[in-house]
Write a structure and sequence with these properties.
Largest sheet: none
Helix content: over 70%
Number of domains: 1
Structural class: mainly alpha
Number of strands: 0
Order of helices and strands: HH
Radius of gyration: 18 Å
């Protein structure tokens, strides 16, 4: 749920940029890029955070 708000805001920014076209201002573009990057990094960090304890602590002793 947490990464979803960033992705939603990035999508909203993209729609607004498409509506404004060439008149889109720099803060809108920068904020959209930041929100998309944050959402992407958080989405990628969730599986890493779930897999890391298994790889570090639950090793089989063969």
């Amino acid at each position: 749920m947490i990464p979803g708000i960033y992705i939603f805001r990035a999508g909203s920014g993209l729609i607004l940029m498409m509506k404004l076209g060439i008149h889109a201002d720099v803060p809108l573009i920068a904020n959209t890029i930041v929100m998309a990057g944050t959402g992407l990094l958080m989405t990628l960090a969730i599986p890493v955070g779930l897999a890391l304890p298994n790889l570090l602590f639950f090793r089989s002793e063969d």
